[in-house]
User: What shape does this take?
Amino acid sequence: MKEQQSIPTTKTQRSARFVKTGFQIGGNYIKHYSKKLFNPEMDRAELNEDNATDIYKSLSELKGSALKIAQMLSMDKNIMPKSYVDKFTQSQYNAPPLSGPLIVRTFTKHFGKTPEQIYDKFNTTSSNAASIGQVHEAWLQGEKLAVKIQYPGVADSISSDLKLVKPFAFRLLGMSEKELNIYVKEVEERLLEETDYELEVRRSIQFSEACKNLNNVVFPTYYPELSGKRIITMGWVPGQHLKEFLNTKPSQELRNKIGQALWDFYNFQQHELRAVHADPHPGNFLITPDEKLGVIDFGCIKELPDDFYTPFFSLVTKGIMDDKEKTLDAFRKLEMIHKSDTPTLVEFYYNAYKEMIGLFAKPYLSETFDFSKQEFFDDLYAYGERIARMPEFKQARGVKHFIYVNRTNFGLYTILQELKAVVNTATYLPQL
Assistant: This one.
């Protein structure tokens, strides 16, 4: 993949890149409607492909929060045209890397020394480039290390980038401005945390220690003394990303084993720690040569406060959804139903959310669940498409915690679907 020699870091430079992309999209629409004059039956497939290509190219060059949004959207397969999902999925595994000299300058600026002054050997060609930083191989005293270096300007551009992303999000997601603002604020808070690599190292050590007894889950060793605000040094975890792993045609037994490790990893955190690794895209995991799940990134952690956790997970407990008053009480506590709603609206949202929670809760309501069942995901996506067209869902509904908790759980479901794993879902249940 071609290396990127520079990155726009100032607000003016980044704004100009968004404006340029806006003009390109405008041109795509003109081209589309010109062709449609001669072919009225023409659909939007080519338009979506052109727009997705232009938007992804822009976001991948800007990196940071702009590219992170693409990464998040690529996991929400039921809210965007397939061409966008396919294009944005590239951000889960690899983005165009920054050149070696630029990375060395960035490292020296934040660490005060060149990589060669710290490590015995440092590979200036990145092994993996993602949204916020890229990873380089290094060696010290015979041990292979992974050095994650944050892209220049990422932390300083989060707020302004999210404002610039808004027009694209309006068009892609069809959200009301109020709903989008709630989404953007929560995303901004998490992204600011993700760019604080000192915080990430502390959390990584804390969570890997808390999860060390989980079966078939492994973590790198972290080196705080070789890390800083924009640099993380950790032990190298060998392995394959999900796509590479699946290309080896693993046995059903092995897919179940990795799927079980994922399920246990996430549900142990949600229900025992009340805080969860909220970035379940495949690029954050490796399947190691000894058939374990390697977790290599703890940048995004979402804490689950009691006033959210209790009503939300009570809804996936057997019997609660059969009691209408208890269900309505939980919906109100979660702000899914508002005080100002008319009786007719209360009944509408009660039925709509009951269907949604019923779908979400299916894996929890049996001791094992087969995530290869396409009908389960077809029902989820069909539900999402249906409510996306309803005017009642154009207004903000639900507390802000839904954004990352939904992303976490549906992201987990999606990876398990790709694995076609059958897992024991009774290992770590809600603690109410």
Notes: Confidence is low (pLDDT under 50) at residues 74-80. Residues 11-38 form the longest helix (28 residues).
